[in-house]
């Protein structure tokens, strides 16, 4: 790097002869000024050596100080600060700095922010560790029926998540049919009504049996009778006896840990047409699945059998059934089978339609 030195020459010696000597020796003298017998100018390393070797001959006092790196473009590009200024943006571009959620509904923004934080998609996380858009979309849409799709926009180190809400479900058209009453398909204790039309016959906390009328579609006002039909749901608690037979040894498969492999590619080895800092690092994700076997033994009724049978029972029904309680009647463990019967207390819609008889 080309440095400059500020020179101050003072004293009672021959200042004019000294300056003439410097010019004769082709010393670079810049910004020369002479005030009250004191000369100030700027020179380079060669001039510094000449000044040091001739100052005593002319009986002059010389003060020297470093002027710093040469100003201008050449000085900028040859400084260490320029290298640091190039490295800092490059390192910063390898991290995610901003995560934004674009939605006009605050509850949706809050819900998605929570899921992004749970998936470790947060600021200052390396871009190489951010899952691909498909994995993020599956994580956000899981158990969230309000979302129909999720779009992503990544500009530099900013990730913008744009949730697209599902359109409001239109009310299904009722299938035309004869006016009906609502009767109980099974016995139980009524918990609540969700009638669309019709008049209640039973009431909450009433015990009904199979075939009892829950709501009537015949409205009577004084001497006037109108048949409108009943429609809706009537929920009740009732017990279901569930018998099962399972193999004693059950095979299972679990998703194992995810491993991430990093590989570094030089810019001229990248196959992408436009090189970006992200293409410098490539990641490969692998998820291993673990398989095994579980042997059912006595003592696993509460921890394994009941949760397993609950999921099986609810998956067999398309209704909004809720299991309130359960009681184990009996469970037997044979050499290769597990047999038993469990009572489940279920809350579900027990109303079914029965056409109203109107004669001919």
Q: Mean pLDDT score, rounded? A: 81
The helix fraction, in percent, is: 10-25%
Q: Which strand order does the major sheet show?
A: 13-11-17-21-20
Which structural class should the secondary elements be placed in? Answer: alpha+beta
Instruction: Give the total of beta strands.
Output: 22
Distance between the termini: 112 Å
Q: Write the H/E string, N to C.
A: EHEEHEHHEEHEHEEEEEEEEEEEEHEEE
Structure, explained:
The chain has 360 residues and is α+β, with helices and mostly antiparallel strands. The protein is 21% helix and 45% strand. It contains seven helices and 22 strands. The strands form seven sheets. The chain has a five-stranded antiparallel β-sheet, covered by helices on one side. A hairpin with a 3-residue loop joins strand 20 (322-333) and strand 21. The longest helix is centred in the C-terminal third of the chain and has 15 residues, at 301-315. The chain is elongated, with a radius of gyration of 43 Å. The mean pLDDT is 81.
